[in-house]
Amino acid sequence: MTKTIRLTAAQAMVRYLAAQKTVSGDSFIAGCWAIFGHGNVAGLGEALYQVRDHLPTYRGHNEQTMAHTAIAFAKQLRRDRAMMVTSSIGPGATNMVTACALAYVNRLPVLFVPGDVFAHRGPDPVLQQPENFADGTVTATDSFRPVSRYFDRITRPEQLLTALPRALRTMTDPADCGPVTLAFCQDVQAEAFDWPEAFFDEKVWRRREPQPDPAEVEAVASLLRNSKRPVIVAGGGTHYGHATDALTAFAEAHQIPVVETQAGKSALPWDHPLNLGPIGVTGASSANSVCGDADLVLGVGTRFQDFTTGSWSLFQNPARRLVSLNVQAYDAAKHGAEPLCCDAKAGLEALSEAISGTVFEAPSASLKADWFASVDPLTDAPEEDMNALPTDMQVVGAVQRASDENTIVMCAAGTMPGELHKLWKARKPGSYHMEYGFSCMGYEIAGALGIKMAEPDRDVVCFTGDGTYMMANSELATACMMGAKFTLVITDNRGFGCINRLQMGTGGAEFNCLLDHSYHVNPSQIDFVAHAASMGAKAVKAESIAELEKHLSLAKSHDGVYAIVLDTDPYPSTPHGGSWWEVGVPEVSSRETVNAAREVYETKRKTQRAV
Q: Distance between CA atoms of 13 and 67, rounded to whole angstroms?
């Protein structure tokens, strides 16, 4: 006879999650981020309290940003562990949709458990319930469907017997990995059921390593053997597949240059002779040059996003063939690529064996030398007597000089991602953490906390601009209350400087991006130092790059968040490298600058080659 235990559905959920382990013995679900409200406080709240000693619950200040913390935790640990996030049924739930989309785009595991309406519908409509006039089954949580790898609505307790294993399978599967949403009806959370005790047995989830198909290996090997100038595009899957050592060995054995996407950066140390640097719109001239000449492009764990491919204008060799080594078949077959659908490490090893003895001509060392000769002066400290606002490039240089092998730099949307992609010299894998798949403002501070929770012994430096700081700064208070230690560099260029430059670059007038170009009665007087200090950080104003470097040094010995605010110039950016990026320019305009930009746009579109 099957032994059972009587628990509420919420108690069963958290008990099951606590029993899910990694190969190393850690809990796969490392904890739960929660903001309680009606819809989760009575059911899940009580259940989480009972398991708080081995499944800790952390309180955030905003549902979106607490989920960003969970996402950054999973990203930094290369998807080997994850977290759960829970909210109430209405705005609390929809606040998390942006974060769910971020995890979806970046293929990162998070378990979203928003509360939901009453399954029995007796009190309809409940507080915060949007009513669909044509469909009685629709609730706010349906907004998670298009951005979840797996979605389920729990309307009976016993549905968890199938839903939870499906959720864990999705989050631990290298191909399907991404966010899971289990919308949990609030009355069902509190309902009891006689659960099989075996359901709560400890289970170890091993990272699957799908092996390559021999026919696909041979097809790709044949293309490589017949190529003259191949290049490897290292994407985020290189990290998630634990394949950085395999990539290095493959590149060295066959002398193939490697270029890095935002997600793939740090796959090789910056000074490795075969690392030609960042690719694409924010790429190095060294990397983009070899990509333009390449007759074979081997993507490893990349989605071939538009920033990577220069909106498919970058790979100009008429003989170019595209190969995609990716664990997800959808990505492996993109844009007419020859697919090698498998684990990144296994695929590189099999491919290396298949082309054993094939060695290509290494790229000229002058490509990297010329690139750094161009950009290194931009990151140098300015002369002390220069009466000018620092540039973002100089800020990057200051942080670089203050960092070491233990440093992780992180950022998300805005100006700094482009500058860091071009200029940051990543010393080893895992030292560069960028959210650029969704380019989501507000990820930075919450993400820094997640990184620190993932790797508490590493130094974390978070770059954020004033625009994104104003969008989402509340988890700074959470980080301070939790005693997290990281350095926060707030560059204040008084608005959205990155988009202002894009606006100007497409012929537009400066309008509504910088604060001085908006309809405000009073000028901006935001005191970021006082604000960060009010939330518990040690906050200072640096008046120069020299003062920034002084405070970066002091931050190392400070036990907590050390926030450094620095005014910067919103206009300059690294003029070297880069490639075209398709942004629709108006076909009709009374402005000559827009018409000129449209002519450039039409010319550049002719260089696109999607297949």
A: 19
pLDDT of residue 553: 98
The Cα 312–Cα 335 span in angstroms is 10
Cβ atoms of 183 and 249 closer than 8 Å: no
- Our CA dihedral for 495, 497, 500, 506, rounded to 10 degrees, sits at -170
Residue 307: what residue type?
F
Q: Which residues of the chain have pLDDT under 50?
A: none
In the prediction, which pLDDT does 13 show?
98
Nearest Cα to Cα of residue 267 among 405, 428, 420: 428
Please state whether 483 falls in left (phi above 0), alpha (psi between -120 and 50) or beta: left
What's 307-328 look like in SS3? Answer: HHHCCCCCCCCCCCEEEEEECC
Name residues whose C-beta falls within 8 Å of residue 409's C-beta, 6 or more positions apart in sequence: 399, 403, 420, 424, 431, 432, 433, 461, 463
CATH number assigned to the domain covering 380-567: 3.40.50.970
| Residue whose structure tokens are 């509190």 | 190
Which residues, in sequence order, are bridge partners of residue 419? none
Contacts with 423 (C-beta within 8 Å, 6 or more apart), sequence order: 375, 378, 379, 393, 396, 397, 400, 574
| Gyration radius from the chain CA atoms | 25
Q: Helix 63-76 vs helix 97-106: angle between axes, to the nearest 10 degrees?
A: 20
Q: What is the pLDDT of residues 47-57, one digit of tens each?
A: 999 999 999 99
DSSP letter (8 states) at residue 517: G
Helix or strand (DSSP H, E) at 231: strand 230-234
Q: Is 510 exposed, middle or buried (0-12, 13-18, 19+ CB in 10 A)?
A: middle
Query: In Å, what is the CA distance from 495 to each residue of 318, 548, 568, 569?
Result: 42, 21, 11, 11
Q: Which residues make Cβ contacts (< 8 Å) with residue 18, sequence separation at least 6?
A: 27, 29, 51, 54, 55
* Predicted TM-score (pTM) of this structure: 0.97
State which CATH number among 3.30.420.40, 2.40.160.20, 3.40.50.1220, 3.30.365.10 fits the domain covering 214-367: 3.40.50.1220
Superfamily of chain region 4-205: Thiamin diphosphate (ThDP)-binding fold, Pyr/PP domains (3.40.50.970)
Give which of 234, 129, 107 is closest to 175, Cα–Cα.
107
Instruction: State residue 385's pLDDT score.
Output: 56
Query: To 10 degrees, the CA torsion angle through 266, 267, 269, 272?
Result: -140
DSSP for residue 544? S
Joined tokens for residue 57 = 């619950």
- In whole angstroms, give the CA distance from residue 435 to residue 73: 12
Output the six-digit token pair for 227: 């190529």
Classified as helix, coil or strand, 337 is coil
Residue-range domain boundaries for the chain = 4-205, 214-367, 380-567
21 DSSP assignment: E
